């Protein structure tokens, strides 16, 4: 099974390896065999967070922009077959892990990174075309990875019907780490939506909130059977590889197709 409309198939073709991993019940494509060659290139999507010194964004605004930007790049026409980004995005999605690396930028450095191929959302986050981590351009390499933490805010209740990415209420994550995780979640959510026959545009701008412990426990208890968890609650998880901050296999966040679902 694959996205029902020809245009959707084209726009999401680079995500087919991801679909085979996150919703195998919804696709007839086998998950690709991944050669985790320790000497091979490590591919990642750079995610540039605009955190100005004088007027920093709220973490909610930044994370929502990060989720939207990662997905926007993957569904951009340039990431479709024949597009200039297709090979890079497809190679990254087929690498076994959808690694992202968040970096902080401000003022002139933020302006400079706009010239690097990618997609900017809300003038807060720019997702760049993925590639080997040791081949990033100078404009990206000079940006700091740390210093992304922002003070908590109090976001409003999510409107019913809006897709949500729920952060794990029991795991501490830096803002930069969370930005990478919600970017994973938006891609996974759109992939499952598309491969189960709905319009991925419906989840293009998800809200980001921290889950209640009760809801989190309910969803996590259902994840042993991902197909049933999707059918009952409309949820799909992000399980971290454990390279930074959290233990391998930790569910860092859960995408849900609609608030109140």
TrEMBL record:
One of its GO terms (molecular function) is hydrolase activity. Keywords: Hydrolase. InterPro entries: Pep_tRNA_hydro_II_dom_sf. This is Peptidyl-tRNA hydrolase. It comes from Actinomycetospora termitidis.
